[in-house]
Amino acid sequence: MSEEHTLESRLMATGTERLSLLGRYADVLMQGYSRDEVPLEPLTDGALRKLLAARILWRPDEHGAVKLTPKVRELIAEMLADETRRHVNADVGETLEQIRNLVQSYREAVNRGEHYQQGPLMLRLRQEVDDLNGRFADAIDSLWQRLNSDFGFVSRLNDKIRENDRAQKQIVRLLDGMALIDFEELIELVGSDGSLRKLLISQLQQQLSLHYTNLREVQGRLIELMARFRQQQQQSRLVAGMAAFLREHPGFVPGNYTRRSEVPELFNRASPLQAAGSVALDHHHDSDTIASLLHALPVAVHRPEIVEAAGPAQVEEQSLVEARQQALKQDVERFYLDVVDRGAAQGGIPGDVSALEYLADSALEWDQEIWLFQVIAEYQGLPREEQRAFRLIPEESPAGPFNDVQLIHDVSLVLAV
After folding, report:
1. Would you say the pTM of this structure is higher than 0.70?
2. CA-to-CA distance for 342 and 348, rounded, in angstroms?
3. CA distance 158 to 156
4. What are the structural domain ranges in the chain?
5. SS3 content of the chain, % helix, strand, coil (to 5)
6. pLDDT above 60 for 413
7. Long-range Cβ contact pairs of 393-397 (< 8 A, separation 24 or more)
């Protein structure tokens, strides 16, 4: 009972102290609620540290302004019944929808020249973005608290696995919430407005990258704690098993394993694995170190290989191959010119010309597969302006009922209208 009484008294003392902070600095907190940031002039350094430690205020980044935490802002909005800032549903999708509506209202006010509405709308938009960012930061901080409390002081493996699964599910939910933020949609939504692009594109993207980095660190910490716990449990099981064996066999004496010709399997050790590594390009503070390591890499020396002179037979064979390729290319070019001539002869009305029919009518001796391949390659090799003058229509079918590979049987070339 004494421990419970001590815990209760500690909670009472902490709660009373933090509630008194709300009343003592009520004027400053209300100024932060009505503005974009909390004024620091009325606060001393000690008072600022207390408000930050009590999570009444928070600083989104190291060099940014001090603002109200989302929970305190929602508490004030609930007490004031401020319908413009109260959140009925505090999920990410609802916040993003509110941001879209505020952006559209702000752009409409800018187009109408209503300057008296632009300031309040921009203020509410900044607060919505701060709330969204603060919600992610609070969730990640809660994960860290769980790692240092529930996960770190669980004695049984099953409880540890359940806490690990719970934390992993929360990470998945956070990642799903972050995935709802579509920056391509935001870029299209804000248009060319500089203040909106800075708030919703550059700043939000930087903060989101920081949240992704923190989540990776949380996952790494989870894996590290789980591996350490399994190692400790394995050692404790070995010691407990040895102690139980000695209780059952009190006269057991370990043998001298160094004199044995065959080593027991327990003492065999596999060679260590070499962990794979990669450069973390998202750590900008390591860019100088990475650059110095790249400059320190040895320069690869390429030794020239000795090339023997080709004989007369090889030169003649290569000439025949080049001549055959050139002849195939010229025949395909005549096919394209024939399509153009037919379109001109029909008064500009395009008509399909089958590549295999042209091959048969012209009595050319090319293999059908090679001919179709050259026709397609010639079309893809045309400049973009000339490529728009034609349309290549493939005649294809799937390779099988369970195979999505398309087999090309023929192609038709037609002049584009």
Report:
1. no
2. 9
3. 6
4. 17-86, 87-250, 318-415
5. 65, 5, 30
6. yes
7. 393/352
3-state secondary structure of 417: coil
pLDDT in tens, 67-114: 888 888 877 876 775 645 654 444 688 888 888 888 888 888 888 888
CA distance 280 to 286: 8
Residue 39: band (very low, low, confident or very high) from pLDDT cuts 50, 70, 90: confident
DSSP, residue by residue, 274-309: -------TT-GGGHHHHHHHHHHSPPPPPPPPPPPP
How many of the other CB atoms lie within 10 Å of CB of 189? 17
Token output for 371 = 């001919």
The first and second tokens of residue 183, run together, are 């920056």
Residue 201 neighbours by CB under 8 Å, 6+ apart: 183, 186, 187, 190
In this structure, of 244-253, 284-293, 321-330, the range with the lowest mean pLDDT score is: 284-293
Q: How far apart are CA 177 and CA 76, in angstroms?
A: 25
| Residues 135-161: b if buried by 16+ CB within 10 A, e if exposed | bbbebbeebeebbeeebeebeeeeebe
Alpha helices in 180-266 (DSSP H): 183-190, 194-197, 204-248
pLDDT at residue number 311: 58
**What count of other Cβ atoms lies within 10 Å of the Cβ of residue 85?**
17
